[in-house]
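Table S7 (text form). Paired inputs.
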Amino acid sequence: MLTPEHLHALHNLPLAARQAAEGLLHGHHLSRRKGAGMEFSQYRPYQPGDDLRRLDWRLAARSDRYYIRESEVETSLTVHLVLDATASMNHRDDNGLSKLDYSRLLCAALAYVATQQGDAVALTILHPSGLQHLPPRADARQLSRLYHALENVQAAGKFPDTTTLAPLTARRQPALLICVSDLYEEDEEIGRLLTRLRAAGGEVLILHLLARNEVEFTYRGAVTFEDLETGHTLQLDADQQRQAWQQQMQDWLRTTASQARRQGFDYYQMNTAAPLDQAMREFLRLRTKMV
């Protein structure tokens, strides 16, 4: 599995998405269910109550036995990617990637995998100036639309207010919703949004994205930190504060994970140095459960 740095260095989002997903999808076939679809799968013996229209009369005439033609139809669902594009996503890790850079790669790879599974994919970018929304489609051009939107997104400002989010929460379409965010919020606004979206139907997977340097606190000496969304600054000695920072970070992460799961969300934590495959596996696990 290629590292995020190598994928980002390609400067080609479609290629990066395909490269990230290629190994994962090798040998992984579309989920299918038996039914009265168009693609023939196999015969099975007739059982009382079976639809006689699916009985193969020619085979019965030749063998004097009754068989039902089973076919396979692809199971699919709507996958709704929700990307947090607030200013905190501009935070950059030691590997040079910002959270937004990583999120572009992650959303593109997830969209590619979902499309390969036959799913309709939607994308909503959360931005204080308004929502950018691509409705769910399963046609051949949807990936190009998604890649274009992801390539052009810029992170800025704070989390959108309730009025801005209203069109998103008004939609009631069952889907597997995947939220990519660092979950930095002022008053649980992200949790409230996800709760409303889950009430609309389907499942919610939170991909909680953090930079490794903020989790491990790799900074040294005197450092000035700036809150990217409020502009507030804080000066401290990183070596003196490392242990306290790490303890508070771990406490927050445990609380965040516990609250998310208590609300019925699937929660997965990842950092900007991690390969993308685990997030894609988590998606496939949930998808299998839903279809």
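Next pair, protein 2 of 2.
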Amino acid sequence: MAITGPTITELNLIAKSLCMDLSDSDLELHLSLLQPNLAAYELIDSLPDNVPFVTHPRTSGYEPDLEQNELNAWHRKVSIKGEKSGLLAGYKVVLKDNIFLAGVPMNNGASTLQGYIPEYDATVVSRILNAGGEIVGKAHCEYFCLSGGSHTNSKHSVKNPYNPLHSSGGSSSGCGALVGAGEVEMAIGCDQGGSIRIPASWSGCVGMKPTWGLVPYSGIMPIENTIDNAGPITNNVENNAKLLQAIAGHDGLDPRQYRQGVDDYLTSLKSNINDLKIGILTDGFNRPESEEDVDKAVLDAIQVLSKLGASIDEVSTPWHNIGQSIWLAVALEGLTDQMMLGNGMGRGWKGLHSTSLIDRHSSWRMRANELPNNLKSCLLTGQYMLEKYNGHFYAKAQNLSRRLTDEYDKLLSHFDILIMPTTPMKATPIPTADDDEALHVQRAFEMIGNTSPFDTTGHPALSIPCGIRNGLPVGMMLVGNHFDEATLYRAAQAYEQSTDWKAV
């Protein structure tokens, strides 16, 4: 793009926005001083961007009609075949629609981003293809991924595969619905407040939010760097471990990553659980929003683990119920600053940036009235707190997140796993046009009390189905030490192999 310098009037407006009062002579001076700086920008503009090459051939695919998309879970269908052999050979994988897939339109659930086409693949995409997997499409997600319900996508609600009048869970709503319905075996979701685990819980899938930084987020539209996570949603534990094995590990492009090694998750599935110590986190049960049958289903599932040899005891920390408030300050001020005011990428971090996303997403300001009320509420809160308190509470929440992490680590020094319901309630009804707008917003956030604290602390957390109540799945969440996904898989596999969750 051509670089144009500011006029005197534009420079004066910029100065005033920076609380500077410049005289006409000052403005003339600074206008001349800007010229060498602008020349540097012109040089940057003349150079090719340094982004990954696209290696596997593909077409842009197509948007399926209603007959092929009864749950409104598909954003786009494609067929991008990977290598002929590898860990994922023969598997079909769908991607949440905030993940870059070169040449294929990406909406991230939003009307304001419609028409955007990424020019390179996310690291997780390259790794799936290199491992022999086939990318078969993009799944609908919630508007900029800001809902735990499945009713905020700009192209209508995503339906629960067990009851189409209920939510599939968000924000990886299409991923949960497609895996839960058996249309695909594997999906990649993203999780900043529970967005892998909530759809796994409500749609009857296995969903892993890995340790923060284990899976590279490069080439995925961020919300807030310190809580961004990508991970697998699958039809069973083994496939979940297999997909995580393929996508995990350092890529040199994501500053969220701070550990190079990757464990052998598949070998861990073969071990018994006789040596495991499991803590029932009582603070995750009997919450104000809890449903009694959900709590009971999880407690019954824990007894199965006990019969399989794990030792069980109850534990508690008041910090668990403080965790959602800590998460909220980080998430709301962070997303306002990075995802919205920062045009998707923000600043202050090294790694793989997308200039095309910045250019396209910045236009949200001209169409802000189209944003759903749950997102407007987040933005209004975040902007108010940033302007009124200058980021004070974001900073304090980040400090408190270390204390929250320590509190969970104290428990995990005595237990291998903490267990609680993934979501305190089963899938809620999808709100309709006749429902009060306050209910629409409530349906976006009411389920995140147990999931969101672990996005702040970075602990791995896995949701596994443990029963059906009133025709809807119930999810049990296993939380472990940082980078100890293998132990979570070991316990989940033992439970899955010993129980038909649809019959209990």
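The longest helix spans residues 24-46.
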